[in-house]
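Support request, please re-run this one:
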Amino acid sequence: MDITALNSTKALRKHVLVWMCLFFGSVSLFFSALNVFSGVYLLGFLEFCFSIYCLYTIHHLSKHALRFWQSVVMCVLVCIIVLYANYISEPKYGLFVWSFALPVLCYLLMGKRYGIFFSGTVLFIQSLILLSKSSPDPIVNLNMAINLLLAYVSIWTVSHIFEGSRALSSKRLKNLALLDPLTGAGNRLSMNHYFEVELVDKTNTYLFLLDLDYFKQINDKFGHDVGDKVLTEIATLLRITLAKGYVFRVGGEEFAVIHSFNSKDEALFAAEKLRETVEKTPFNIEGHAIKLTISIGVADYQANPSLESIFIAADKQLYKAKRLGRNKVYASSKEQLKQIEVPA
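Re-run finished. Output below.
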């Protein structure tokens, strides 16, 4: 599965922003020329600058990833232009209808939290503008106010519900793709996604690859249901013991932990503490007192500058720990680290 497919929300917002820039940029350029010829120079100038910004944004997004501030700036500029156009024009020209598009745009580009703030702000300011330009006929004012308010609130409500449902569905699909259904730990895809996308600073990153010793005997003696609960308990214990680390299930009874440490000695101390914690923790499952031990292989990013290489290095150390008696922690020696670092 492609890792980028997990960022569906960002891809959607980038797609929407590109098309909104294309649409609003073209419309603004047209109205800019129209307003300049009509003598409305300030609005025409604002619309011209906005169209230039839209073209720049399209060009920038064709080569770079979407930044959240770009969505915010787009919404702010559109809101300012729409509200200012309403402020300097009469209601009979119908420019207020552009306000109805703003909740949809804000929710699609920024999500629920910012969408509700921007939509509420636009409603408040637009109401003040229209009230300041009331018709002499109070019945006309009341009918117009009620219809505009209900139309805007209905669009706002639909936008809010749609974005909430879309975000929840996206989160559920992402969890299905990234989480191990049994233990709740991340899976291999989750580990790749975290390492390649989310982990920006990899300088002091270490990977612990650990395996439950003689786990097959637990399944054979107590049954697979008990074995599954043991795996769940281990995953929980790993998350608690290494609170700032990220836990992944990468095999049947094999787990990986990615964590940052200031030094190799600190990493080895944490791995040894983890091994000792598992050894001393009694697992009482369905009336069975089960004792467990784990073997751990440790590798660091500086000596292995890719997820694949760091995983292979940790796997070699794990194999050494199991071959030399299990319930041990092994990492590359300093001499080995130097030999690996020289070619890099």
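The first strand starts at residue 205 and ends at 212. The chain has a mean pLDDT of 87.
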